[in-house]
Amino acid sequence: MHECYCAVFRYENHEFKEVTAPALCKPSELLAIADDNGAEFLCGNAFRIYADEIRDPAPKKLLSTDDVNAQMIVPLARKYFEENKTVDAAEASPLYVRDHVALTIEERKAEKSR
């Protein structure tokens, strides 16, 4: 659907604070969202996949995602567990950012005409 998942976080007092909730945007909108929210660092594979559509992010620092893996979340999970910031598994639910899962015929035609 030619969209990117995007969220902005700020690191303060040794934790990440959500600035903008996870959402979808067009690749061409990513840097404006970062600029509007004072982001200094960028991360994600959209910058590789849509490199021809996203302007040079300088002076922002683009962090590599080459070594990112699920193991990296363990320290955060441990911290949340120790701070009793947990929920019962029966109450846990995923966050759905995309509620529109396919383009209609009209939307596909509009995309092609751009």
Beta-strand content estimate: 15-25%
* SS elements, strand count: 4
- Determine the N-to-C terminus distance: 14 Å
Helix content: 25-40%
**Rg computed from alpha carbons, rounded to a whole number of angstroms:** 17 Å
Structural class: alpha+beta
Count the domains.
Answer: 1
Would you list the SSEs in sequence order as H and E? EEHEHEHH
Give the neighbour order of strands across the main sheet.
1-2
Overall pLDDT: 86
Q: Low-confidence parts lasting 5 or more residues at pLDDT below 50?
A: none
Keywords:
about 110 residues; globular; alpha+beta; about 25% strand
Describe the protein's architecture and organization.
The chain has 114 residues and is an alpha+beta fold. The protein has one domain (4-113). It is built from 4 helices and 4 strands; from the N terminus they run ββαβαβαα. The protein has helices at 30-36, 46-49, 74-82, 105-113, and strands at 4-12, 15-25, 41-43, 61-63. The strands form 2 sheets. A two-stranded antiparallel ribbon has the order 1-2. It has a two-stranded parallel ribbon with strand order 3-4. Strand 3 (41-43), helix 2 (46-49) and strand 4 (61-63) form a beta-alpha-beta unit. The mean pLDDT is 86. It comes from Parasutterella excrementihominis YIT 11859. This is Conserved domain protein.
